């Protein structure tokens, strides 16, 4: 792509090599309305010191303050929306949804989104947010986050003996693992959690060699055991200690991703990390058909969907994948290949290149930029 990036911070500019070496990096600070506007002024000074209109083709802003400064100072800005600024404030406990501060942040970010030459988002949830806030539909580019520094998926592994040693399961049994088993605010079983238990009960009635592993806090163990007892599946259900979660993830035959949204509005916009990790590791993935899970594999490659909060549908699909080891292997391999094809550095870089070329074309189509500077190509110079 032939790009030469130059890093700019509120304290000044520096080469990319300095930034990657750990020098010239800012320490994260708590969010506040007044500090954000001070940051805008600092960013604007730093940008103008670099003369972006004459030294670069575009400015890629990675935060709200930098984006606000850039669209007021530069003719070609790519805005990278990692999280909506008002939702960050809500997540940090600075304001509530619909508050004056939240509305102020939202209006300010609408200004940036509507004036950027291109907007980059990293999830379907953020794409929806960008469109809601006034970004032109054709200017929004969905660029997934890369999954690995070495560009290669991890080696496939499945320590069946771990499940036998740790939980006493028979080696010929099929284990379903549910990370982040959904609980409500009182750490009681949520509706989605109960649906998983009921769906597993239906599947285990048909195939009793099934086992269910739940990543849940110790405080929820009693509620889980009571409900499992009522369903007659206590001997097939185990709560996984947090230290055993990584090994259980690697050893389980099937990973089940639930569909409930996190309470944190920032996290709710992002793809479900459980789905991404499962696909990257080549695990058989059963996932609730909800937008956060679809973010990981929009076309469903490497994934078998189930209807959220429908125990019968989940039970049917558990039974289906449980009795077909060849299908599980093919499904896991397909997901692993899909993530590698779409989230390696080259593929992600190509997505950025498309956004940059689009932004540059929009800059050329605008005869006058924000600073009233008319640009000409070198071929026109006499």
Overall average residue pLDDT: 85
Instruction: Report the structural category.
Output: alpha/beta
Strand order of the largest sheet: 9-8-7-10-11-12
Portion in helices: 40-55%
What distinguishing features does this structure have?
Rossmann fold, 2 domains, 12 strands, six-stranded parallel beta sheet, 382 residues, alpha/beta, disordered C terminus
Topology readout:
Blueprint: E1 6-9, E2 12-15, H1 16-20, H2 33-49, H3 52-55, E3 59-61, H4 64-71, E4 77-81, H5 85-91, H6 100-115, E5 118-121, H7 124-132, E6 140-142, H8 160-167, E7 174-178, H9 191-206, E8 210-215, H10 221-231, E9 237-240, H11 245-251, E10 254-257, H12 265-268, H13 273-280, E11 284-288, H14 291-294, E12 303-306, H15 311-322, H16 325-343, H17 345-365
Parallel strand pairs: 3-4, 4-5, 5-6, 7-8, 7-10, 8-9, 10-11, 11-12
Antiparallel strand pairs: 1-2
Summarize this, please?
The protein has helices at residues 16-20, 33-49, 52-55, 64-71, 85-91, 100-115, 124-132, 160-167, 191-206, 221-231, 245-251, 265-268, 273-280, 291-294, 311-322, 325-343, 345-365; strands spanning 6-9, 12-15, 59-61, 77-81, 118-121, 140-142, 174-178, 210-215, 237-240, 254-257, 284-288, 303-306.
